[in-house]
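Recall the central idea of this unit: under ordinary conditions, the amino acid sequence of a chain determines the structure it adopts. In this exercise we apply that idea directly, starting from the sequence alone.
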Amino acid sequence: MGVEGTASQSEIIAAVEAAGYGASVKGADAGAKSKGASMDEDALKDRRGRHKKDYKPQTEEERLKLEVATLKRQLYLSQMEIDVLKKLQELERGNR
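Accordingly, the structure predicted from this sequence is:
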């Protein structure tokens, strides 16, 4: 938002702050924005269905729930692997 007139930047900022709002010179915090830009790019990445890598359970109950979920996932993947191998053997027997 631009301001037209002859008032200096410091006068404008003082008037805006006196009205109860925050104000700064446009582009004054450009150094901070460069760091924020990389953080914004990380925030835009699609992480649906994924957990944070540095997640630490806060309580013993959370840790146990996480462990149970991990073991269930391992069991599911093992069972799926067994099912695929059985199907492969069945198909190989049928081709002989």
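Residues 47 and 53 are 11 Å apart (CA to CA).
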